[in-house]
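Worked example 2:
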Amino acid sequence: MADRLVVNGPAKLAECIARLTALYRQHKYVKLTVSTGKDRTLDQNALWFGMYKRGADMIEAGDAEEVRKLCKLEIGVRILLRDSEAFHTTWFRMFAHLSYEEKLELMGGHPVAGPEGLPVTRLFDRKQGIEYTERVAAKLRGQGVYLDDLLGEVAA
């Protein structure tokens, strides 16, 4: 059984303590993993999809899924390699030896990596999501993609 509890105020803290107490009483064993900081937002996901679609439409780089895979590999993986020791270790043990094309294939729907591909942006916290947004925008703008209308909505 897995519960995801988020504490973002005194009322939620009390609710979480009550939930943990109930779980402990019921099971006599509770395992916790705690992290701080906000997760990336659903608005970021929507913005990224819009950026991928715009990039695909304007630079004829395949479809939005192809742009997404490229950005995940060329930008997202680099952020995680820098920020996550566990990701860094796993990447170099399991994926570094693969060709660019094989790595790119892992970023999209894949029998081993799952329908969303190898987790990259799903692993971001909010700060990493903001950095990713900025770097994807810079990459696409450098290729002549207009994004000001999308970015003006400030989804990050």
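DSSP finds seven helices and no strands in the chain. The radius of gyration is 19 Å.
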